[in-house]
Design a protein that fits this description.
Layout lengths: L7 H38 L3 H4 L6 H69 L13 H64 L1 H33 L7 E3 L1 H9 L7 E6 L5 E3 L1 H18 L5 E9 L2 E8 L6 H4 L17 H11 L3 E7 L3 E9 L8
Parallel strand pairs: 2-4
Antiparallel strand pairs: 1-3, 4-5, 5-7, 6-7
């Protein structure tokens, strides 16, 4: 059951009505009590028929007494009628005053609390990051001063936000320039040295030039390929990665992905069969290749890599584990950050891209690692129950 919350306005108005009605009831009770006392006094003043029946000495005196008693009784009856009318009119006047005072109170209370309500909404906007807010100063003097202070604070926060954004952009560009400088310098240095060597041999030893020419071309091609991979990594990371899921067999996809690596590296497989997942096929390939490449770079030549696909309730867990150097505990929380890397070579974008692709496909990824014992990545895949169309 949803809990009902009352605003401050409603609470104050209800409290006012409760106090006002209570005071009216007390006042009405007091008036009724006084009315009863008056009724008692008036009843004692009435001349009943027994008094009138008293025989006086003469008929004139008896007639005078009768007239006096009639006048007194008529006056008492009129007084009683006026008393009843006064009671009715006083009740109506009290009701009218109550309604008018409530309307006046609610109107004044609304005028007082409206600027406070606007301040509350403006505070919520600032909380969400919208600092471009200006509130017209109105209300009591104290509230106007509060609104003016709030407007000054809002303008200062907006200025600070703009400065922070500029500083953040500058910092990003500086980091990007530093990384690009470092990464581009690595392949350019061997290209330069190789060209210098070719130039020297071409002038001093033409025969040796022929021998090293194709070897030098291979080095240059390799370093140019490294440059292209670097550009491709930055380009891929900079693009939006919306998922285009399709239904496929993860076991078959894993076998296709690791096929080029199996001749050169020790990769052991433990894959469950006849399962289906709905995932972006290209993203799946990029995730797998980035993690496997990371495992290869972290391991020595004799190190083994385990790739497994197992059932866990309604999910499939794709695990890639290596026997590499491992990751320090303090660095585990940062490995998916862009440009974070502990390698001498690398952009620090591979695992950041993996995390982005997993998020795009609403897939979880976990990592466990120990220094000197290796690292394990686990990708949590939701099993699909549909059949693949052939």
């Amino acid at each position: 059951m949803k809990k009902i919350k009352f605003s401050m306005r409603v609470f104050v108005i209800c409290l006012f009505i409760l106090l006002y009605v209570s005071s009216m009831l007390i006042q009405n009770q007091f008036i009724n009590k006084m009315q009863k006392e008056q009724d008692k006094i008036l009843s004692n003043m009435a001349i009943n028929t027994e008094t009138i029946s008293i025989k006086l000495a003469s008929e004139e005196e008896q007639e005078i007494l009768n007239k006096m008693s009639n006048k007194i009784n008529q006056s008492l009856a009129g007084l009683k009628m006026i008393q009843n009318e006064t009671k009715i009119y006083s009740s109506l006047i009290l009701l009218f005053l109550m309604v008018v005072s409530m309307i006046v109170f609610i109107f004044i209370f609304y005028i007082i609390t409206k600027p406070i309500k606007e301040l509350q909404f403006a505070t919520e906007k600032i909380k969400k990051g919208d600092f471009n807010i200006f509130l017209p100063p109105r209300g009591m003097t104290e509230i106007k001063s509060l609104i003016l202070s709030f407007n000054d604070m809002s303008r200062e926060l907006e200025t600070v936000q703009q400065k922070l954004l500029v500083a953040q952009k500058e910092m990003i560009w500086k980091d990007l320039a530093r990384i690009l400088t470092h990464e581009i310098k690595n392949p350019l240095t061997p290209i330069q040295l190789t060209l210098q060597r070719l130039e020297e041999k071409h002038e001093s030893d033409p025969e040796k030039f022929e021998e090293i020419f194709y070897e030098s071309l291979e080095i240059i091609y390799q370093e140019v390929a490294n440059l292209q991979n670097l550009v491709q990594s930055f380009s891929t990371f900079a693009k939006d990665v919306p998922a285009n899921p399709s239904l496929f067999d993860p076991e078959y996809a894993v076998l296709e992905i690791i096929k080029p690596y199996q001749n050169d590296y020790h990769i052991e497989l433990d894959l469950i069969k006849d399962k289906r997942i709905r995932f972006d096929h290209t993203h799946f390939y990029q995730i797998m290749t980035n993690i496997i490449q990371n495992a290869i770079e972290s391991s020595d030549e004799m190190g083994r890599i385990w790739v497994s696909l197992k059932q866990s309730h309604s999910f499939l867990v794709l695990s890639i584990r290596d026997e590499g150097k491992g990751i320090a505990h303090k660095d585990l929380s940062r490995i998916f950050e862009p440009y974070f890397t502990k390698k001498t070579k690398g952009t620090g974008l591979g695992l950041a891209l993996v995390k982005r692709l997993c998020d795009a496909n609403h897939t979880g990824i976990r990592v466990k690692s120990q220094i000197g014992r290796g690292t394990e990545f686990e990708i949590i895949l939701e099993e699909a129950i549909e059949n693949i169309d052939h």
